[in-house]
Amino acid sequence: MKWALFLPLAFAIPGSAVVRLHCSQLVTQRLDPLVDPGMMPSSHVHQIVGGNSFNATMDPKKNMPEESTCTTCQYADDFSNYWTAVLYFRAQNGSYKRVPQLGNNQFRNATGGLTVYYMQDAIYDSTQKSKVTAFQPGFRMFVGDIFARTLAEAGRFRQLTYTCLDEFITREPELIAFPKRRCKEGIMTSLRFPTCWDGKNLDSPDHMSHMSYPETGTFESGGPCPATHPVRTSQVMFEVVWDTKPFNGLEWPADGSNPFVWSFGDATGYANHADYVFGWKGDALQKILDTPCYFNCDSVGLKLQSIAEMNNCTQKPVIDEDIDGWLDVLPGGYHAEYAPISLQ
Ligand SMILES: *[C@@H]1O[C@H](CO)[C@@H](O)[C@H](O)[C@H]1NC(C)=O
Ligand SMILES: *[C@@H]1O[C@H](CO)[C@@H](O)[C@H](O)[C@H]1NC(C)=O
Ligand SMILES: *[C@@H]1O[C@H](CO)[C@@H](O)[C@H](O)[C@H]1NC(C)=O
Ligand SMILES: *[C@@H]1O[C@H](CO)[C@@H](O)[C@H](O)[C@H]1NC(C)=O
Questions:
Q1: Residue 43 Cα to ligand 1 middle (Å)
Q2: Which of 58, 80, 105, 135 has its CA 20 to 30 A from that of 21?
Q3: Which ligand 3 atom is at minimum distance from the Cα of 107?
Q4: What's the sign of the alpha-carbon dihedral 160, 164, 169, 172?
Q5: Which ligand is nearest the CA of 37, by number?
Q6: 306 CB under 6 A from ligand 3?
Q7: pLDDT tens sequence across 124-141
Q8: Across 11-25, 54-68, 275-289, least confident range
Q9: Residue-level pLDDT at 27
Q10: Is the pLDDT of residue 14 over 90?
Q11: Which of 83, 132, 84, 81 is nearest to 235 (CA)?
């Protein structure tokens, strides 16, 4: 998929938007209001971006734009929270060190964070013809399986991938497991959520079953949504850049295994996952989705923040623990698992 090399052709007028926005880091700590609501700390370390009302408990009925006083996202009206687990490096002596994040291409001055896309059709389709329904207040979703340790288990999900950045702008190939070699400019994870909503539930017990992949084909091929999940939404995608460069010069495991480990112990990469809590103000998201634009949707008239303003919105961790030193054990008590947890 060479979409990064595609530029919208001058004569291809999109009908709606591919919105690309960056969000700087809000906080990195063990909180997870979606999967472990109320738990302080939650099971494993996350990196979180978006509105600063992020907290251990996030009542779907609360109005995030009203509760936040700032957001780390480029659009000042986007108080959503977006988060993923974090990566650790495991040294030969068994100690762990957190892998820092970088601002994505064109957002190098952002304090880490992640880039979010909302697309109506395949990202490389500069016409973006589909009309989609924006998410509603209280909507949230999860994608992935923290217990997946095999390719078959990871295969339930589409497009939760890794790219070995030989150059900062490398965008292919996309791998399902951790890259097995040193990546010159870091590792990028790309996480795409399902795109068919049941039209009724803002959430579900597993935070996934109110959403579905298309019944046949793919989002990219315009596959239809199943009757159980008839509402086509935009595809939400995160890109997260992990700065593995500082670890390329250190000794890696002698047996050739990859030294990068998710904060909950997965060293295979199959348990890549992501969380989303919608929090755009009013109809701002629907407005931007309905406006023809490709990547830089400045013309929509929504207020854009500078990188300095985005970086200026931060939260103090409420969990008091060391997540950044050389650690004997991952926060929460996890150790690197290089193989499936249970025999298949
Ligand atoms: C976060 O949750 C805690 C515990 O429920 C509460 O005491 C605190 O006021 C909340 N903080 C914010 C910023 O909402
Ligand atoms: C383990 O190795 C790392 C990297 O070489 C080093 O910085 C760290 O101090 C070591 N930890 C221990 C406990 O020896
Ligand atoms: C990033 O910051 C540097 C140093 O402050 C500045 O010179 C540069 O113009 C900034 N780049 C962008 C894209 O904002
Ligand atoms: C950063 O936030 C502080 C406190 O809210 C504010 O006084 C300051 O003007 C902000 N700076 C920027 C660059 O937004």
A1: 18
A2: 58
A3: 13
A4: negative
A5: 1
A6: no
A7: 888 888 888 999 999 999
A8: 11-25
A9: 98
A10: no
A11: 132
Residue whose CA is closest, atom 5 of ligand 1?
57
Give the phi and the psi of residue 309 in degrees, each rounded to 5. Answer: -65, -40
pLDDT in tens, 221-253: 999 999 999 999 999 999 999 999 999 999 888
| Domain extent listing, the chain | 6-312
- For residue 97, which amino acid is it? K
Among candidate residues 10, 15, 16, 25, the one with its CA nearest the CA of residue 240: 25
Atom of ligand 3 nearest to the CA of 108: 13
Instruction: Return the residue matching tokens 């935070």.
Output: 207
| Residue carrying structure tokens 């996890």 | 334
Ligand 4 centroid, distance to 309 Cα (angstroms): 7
In one-letter notation, the amino acid at residue 157 is: F
For the chain, what is the radius of gyration of the CA atoms?
Answer: 19
**Which atom from ligand 2 is nearest to the alpha carbon of 93?**
1
- For the beta sheet containing 274-277, the strands, ordered from the edge strand earlier in sequence to the opposite edge, are 25-29, 46-50, 81-85, 274-277, 140-143
Q: Whose Cα sits closest to atom 13 in ligand 1?
A: 53
In what helix (H) or strand (E) does residue 29 lie, and over which residues does it extend? strand 25-29
- The closest residue, in CA terms, to atom 3 on ligand 3 is 109
pTM of the model: 0.93
Q: Which two tokens stand for residue 329?
A: 């054990």
Nearest to 127 by CA among 291, 294, 285: 294
